[in-house]
Design brief:
The structure holds two protein chains of two kinds.
Chain A (H helix, E strand, L loop, with lengths): L2 H16 L2 H28 L2 H8 L2 H6 L3 H7 L4 H13 L6 H20 L3 H5 L5 H34 L1 H4 L9 H24 L5 H9 L2 H13 L6 H25 L2 H6 L2
Helix pairs in contact in A: 1-7, 1-9, 2-6, 2-7, 2-9, 7-9, 7-11, 7-12, 9-11, 11-12, 11-14
Chain B lengths: L2 E12 L2 E12 L3 E5 L6 H8 L7 E6 L8 H5 L2 E4 L11 H11 L4 H14 L15 H13 L5 E5 L7 H18 L2 E6 L2 H7 L2 E6 L2 E6 L1 H8 L3 E7 L7 H6 L4 E7 L2 E6 L5 H10 L4 E6 L4 H12 L1
Parallel strand pairs in B: 3-7, 3-8, 5-6, 6-7
Antiparallel strand pairs in B: 1-2, 1-4, 8-9, 10-12, 10-13, 11-12
The chains are: A mainly alpha, B alpha/beta.
Chain lengths: ~270, ~300
């Protein structure tokens, strides 16, 4: 395996994607909303509005807390209503939404790399290089996965800082992140990043344009929305154990998709689609 | 001479279509070899088969002794390919394009910058090195694509329609470059084209193809001789030849037919070796010769004769 070639392909793909503003627009906007606007909104809201008014809109806090496992309910004990609201929204309700980012980042880069390269008719030159099929595949996958994970982690970091600063007036201490966030960041996020790219690679053999690939693989966001709805309705709660189980399932799906993608990623098939 | 490419009964079948159908040929080191044929003749598929991009359905190929189907990486490390479309990364600069392919070709990191500068200089692109390729003209893109194909100094170069879509000046520039590569560096070149003028100018030997098959193979002279075993020579005189000039020529060994065309004679001879005897005979007979023109067949004549035969 020639890692120099693999990194060269990954770097080249990233340089190219950087120029694709259509792809990067939403991929930049959404983290900004998640990491800055939402924590500010949910932390500042109970400090400027009577919390009873908010409760009227969102539902009674006690009812919401009843859906949580006892170990999590314990975290809320002894807190004021305003603090409960901020903790519930910032630390629990928003958590699964963050999984949109690794999915989106890896899908954007993957779609540009696998389908965009074909669309721009540059794939053939790459196929005439001495890089093996596996090196080409890995270079393109790494170009999608590594930045997706790093950018997601950067968004988490910004979110942690903003959430703590915005709610400092209420808590008078640094309280975030909670332990449930660690497996979310370091187990589930990489799994979702890989899910985004492996789905995109599979989709790429059936579509012609970057936008088609991006939109199709973007439909995976439904998975994230299912987690959000599951958590909001009390069907599923993303505690440490659940995150580890969901993460393991996603990693297994990743392994299957990657296996299928590698099997299909052959020069002879790629050239036939040019 | 060593055979760089050896192809034996090579075929590639897509569904019911035999894109390449039982091709057998070899290419010697330092040779410029042409694959000629109309669109769909199988030229590009042959280039892909010889670079291990496609596996063959039947037959065998060896490039530098390697089977491209199983040792594609070894083959591609020794070949450079210029495709019909430049296939450059338009969002990257000329320098970034060359640096990327230099890395893939395994050029040591310490040599890449120097090698890229050399190629940019050679192809007169130094002043635009940092500009994005999307701002380049077609001719500049084709020169950059040629630079990319040559960045690792491959001993074997495949050129697939290298002047397609270029204006005459840019096409001339690219053709001059190809000619100089073979002459100066001894590189072996496989030129896939339907531009007959270009092929006649550049190629030592050609394979004329149609529907995946080779119709004829050889040098221009060999192909002409295969198609037209006899040669015509036109002899123009300073003053009108004597009446018996034609008659006496007919008796000469190797002369097949003589006809008088004004102040010239059209002589059909067995082969070109007979022409000096004809000239000597006429001079000895006191005739005053102004010009001797053996009839040259162009590649165009040969190509259309072969394609017509195929049709």
């Amino acid at each position: 395996m020639n890692w120099r070639s693999i990194w060269a392909i990954a770097r080249k793909d990233l340089k190219e994607v950087r120029q694709n503003k259509v792809a990067w627009g939403p991929a930049i906007a959404i983290p900004l909303i998640f990491a800055i606007l939402m924590p500010i909104l949910f932390s500042v809201l109970p400090q400027v509005m009577p919390v009873e008014d908010i409760q009227r809109e969102l539902g009674d806090m006690d009812t919401l807390l009843k859906n949580l496992p006892p170990s999590i309910q314990a975290i809320f004990e002894g807190l004021k209503l305003e603090q409960m609201f901020v903790l519930y929204m910032t630390a629990f309700m928003l958590a699964p939404l963050f999984l949109i980012m690794p999915l989106m980042f890896s899908s954007v880069v993957g779609a540009d790399s696998f389908v965009g390269e074909r669309e721009r008719k540059t794939m053939e030159a790459l196929l005439y290089s001495p890089a093996t099929d596996m090196e080409l595949f890995l270079g393109k996958v790494l170009a999608a996965v590594i930045p997706a994970i790093l950018l997601s982690w950067l968004t988490y970091l910004v979110y942690i800082i903003v959430a703590n600063i915005a709610s400092y007036g209420l808590f008078q201490r640094i309280w975030f992140p909670l332990p449930t966030w660690w497996p979310l960041m370091f187990w589930l996020t990489p799994a979702f990043a890989l899910l985004g790219i492996s789905a995109t690679v599979l989709v790429s053999s059936r579509v012609r344009t970057f936008m088609e690939a991006y939109q199709l693989s973007g439909s995976l966001v439904v998975l994230v929305l299912a987690l959000v709805v599951g958590q909001a309705t009390g069907v599923l709660f993303l505690g440490v154990g659940t995150v580890m189980i969901v993460g393991t399932l996603i990693w297994i799906v990743d392994a299957v998709l990657i296996y299928l993608s590698v099997r299909n990623f052959k020069r002879s098939s790629l050239i036939a689609k040019l | 001479m060593n055979a760089v490419i050896e192809v034996n009964s090579l075929a590639r079948i897509f569904g019911r279509n035999r894109a390449v159908d039982g091709m057998t040929f070899h290419v010697e080191q330092g040779e410029v070899f042409g694959l000629l044929g109309p669109n769909g003749a199988g030229k590009t598929t042959t280039v892909r088969l010889l670079n291990g991009i496609l596996p063959p359905s039947e037959g065998t190929a060896r490039v530098f002794g390697f089977d491209p189907a199983t040792h594609g990486e070894d083959v591609r490390r020794r070949t450079g390919v210029l495709m019909e479309t430049p296939a450059l990364y338009e969002r990257l600069s000329a320098r970034e394009n060359l640096e990327f392919f230099a890395t893939l070709q395994g050029i040591p990191e310490s040599d890449i910058s120097r090698r890229v500068d050399e190629m940019l200089g050679f192809f007169e692109l130094s002043s635009r090195a940092r500009d994005k390729v999307e701002t380049f003209s077609k001719g500049m893109k084709q020169r950059l694509a040629l630079a990319r194909a040559l960045i690792h100094k491959p001993p074997l170069l495949f050129l697939d329609e290298p002047t397609s879509g270029l204006d005459p000046e840019a096409a001339q520039q690219v053709n001059d470059l190809i000619a100089s590569l073979s002459r100066a560096n001894g590189q072996t070149v496989v030129l896939a084209t339907h531009n007959l003028f270009e092929a006649q100018r550049l190629c030592d030997r050609v394979a004329v193809m149609n529907k995946g098959r080779i119709l004829a193979l050889g040098s221009l002279k060999e192909l002409a001789h295969k198609l037209w075993p006899v040669t015509w020579v036109s002899i123009t005189f300073h003053v009108k030849p004597s009446g018996d000039a034609a008659g006496s020529l007919k008796a000469l060994r190797g002369v097949i037919q003589v006809s008088v065309e004004g102040e010239a004679l059209a002589v059909q001879v067995k082969n070109e070796d007979v022409i000096p005897d004809v000239v000597r005979h006429l001079v000895n007979s006191g005739e005053s010769i102004l010009r001797v023109n053996p009839m040259d067949y162009t590649l165009e004549d040969i190509y259309f004769a072969l394609q017509a035969g195929e049709a």
